Amino acid sequence: MAFFIVFLCILILILLLTWGKMNAFVAFLLVSILAGLLLGIPANKIPGSLQKGIGDTLGGLVSIIALGAMLGKLVAESGAARQIANTLMRVFGPKYLQWALLIAGFIIGIPLYYGVGFVLMVPLIFSVVYQYKLPAVYIGLPTLAALSITHGFLPPHPSPAALVTQFHADMGLTLIYGLLVAIPALLVGGPFFARYLKNIPTAPATLFKSDATPDTQVPGSANSFLTALLPVILLVLITGLQYLLKDSTPACKQFMAFAGDATVVMLCCLLVATFSLGVLQQRSIKSVMQVYADAVKDVVMILLIIGGAGALKQVLADSGVSEQIAVVMQSWHIPVLILGWLTAALIRACIGSATIAGITAAGMILPLMVREQVDPNLMVLSVGAGSLMFSHVNDAGFWLFKEYFNLSIKHTFLSWSVMETIVGVMGLIGVLILDYFL
User: Fold this and answer.
1) Residue 74: partners with Cβ closer than 8 Å, 6 or more residues away
2) 198-232: per-residue pLDDT in tens?
3) Which of 431, 402, 433 has its CA nearest to residue 417?
4) What does the alpha-carbon distance between residue 98 and residue 121 come to, in Å, rounded to a whole number?
5) 3-state helix, strand, coil in the chain (%, to 5)
6) Helix (H, G, I), strand (E, B), or coil: what is residue 207?
7) How confident is the model at residue 58 (pLDDT cuts 50, 70, 90)?
């Protein structure tokens, strides 16, 4: 009966988001209250569960996501993202333009949110398409695959960062494992798959036919690359040092734990960016702070959605049904890493949002992960890979790609939806390979 109630609540959530067009945060709260009542939690205890779920989920995330949004916004506003793309295109030359754009998308995708990166890269993709008369989907899809993969696999993006918190994983290790999984997934879902898309008919939006944006007062190449990649460099470096210095003095271990905290790392990166992409580019501190304020506005709804998903997770936990679900799932005799991936994939197919799919699946799979003692870092990546599966008509990314590239529904399915499915499956394969060797 409890399993049926959870299924019913997830179905109602899907209907509220799709058919009802309701705000995701409001929908999560309504479904959380309904779930609490149906699962037998006393009515006066439900508000406490909601508050605890929202607080516990957002407590370690607000600073990471907000600081990451500020850094990404400044990278875009300062012209550093465009400088990275232009530099790579000069280095690779016309013959390897697809690879230049792919690498640019991957680097830019690390600090930038998917929607910002998409809007930033599409004009550059089309300028290359028009200049060299190349197939638009063939050139552009690998770049957008890179943006999608960083969004699903790599912290400090909202969904991976939230999953790290939920599963009590290590941000640095998750990032390292994520890079190992992301690169093969990108190669297969990007350049390899795009080879079969050269003949897809498309008429890209003509508004991108000329790009007259001046390159003056843009940060230098070294500055742009270093600032954009600094969070990755620091997290990987500190994680490596923690491993090498695991037998050091307690004071050293305490300092490394402090330095490796994701919030501390992101704060340091933001301070560096404020100087390198702000002050050094003759921007006033006031204008840089305005960029940061605008960035926070962009992620408020993302934070609320994550908090709403945390409320539902807590209601399921307080009712005891999470443990019951874990017991039922355990009887399916499916490895937990595959089960987490499958759960996220099913929710993604129903709801469309990768972030909601990942967070919702995490709340359901967490008790089973703890019981089976699965590596939490790999669990983050497994659920993240599942949350990217089969983007279709209920996903905003699907329509962004269709409209910008002026494709038919059929060809959007054959290109975009298949690409997202490939990277989701490749992500799971990569996780299982890592799990075998670890």
Assistant:
1) 80, 273, 274, 277, 278, 288, 291, 292, 295
2) 888 776 554 444 444 345 567 888 998 898 888 88
3) 402
4) 13
5) 80, 0, 20
6) helix
7) confident
Tokens 């620091």 found at: 234
Token readout for 345 is 């994939």
C-alpha torsion 17→418→362→329, nearest 10: 110
| Cis, peptide link before residue 250, omega less than 30° from 0 | no
- Between helix 418-437 and helix 136-153 the angle, nearest 10°, is 40
Q: For residue range 364-400, list pLDDT tens digits in order.
A: 888 888 888 899 999 999 999 999 998 887 677 787 7
3-class SS of residue 156? coil
pTM of the model: 0.75
What's the average model confidence in pLDDT over 121-145? Answer: 83
Both tokens assigned to 132: 């060299």
**Helices within 320-407 (DSSP H only):** 321-330, 336-351, 354-372, 376-386, 396-405
Share of the chain above pLDDT 90, in %: 30
Over 60: is that where the pLDDT of 329 sits? yes
| One-character DSSP codes across 114-130 | HHHHHHHHHHHHHHHHH
Residue-range domain boundaries for the chain: 2-437
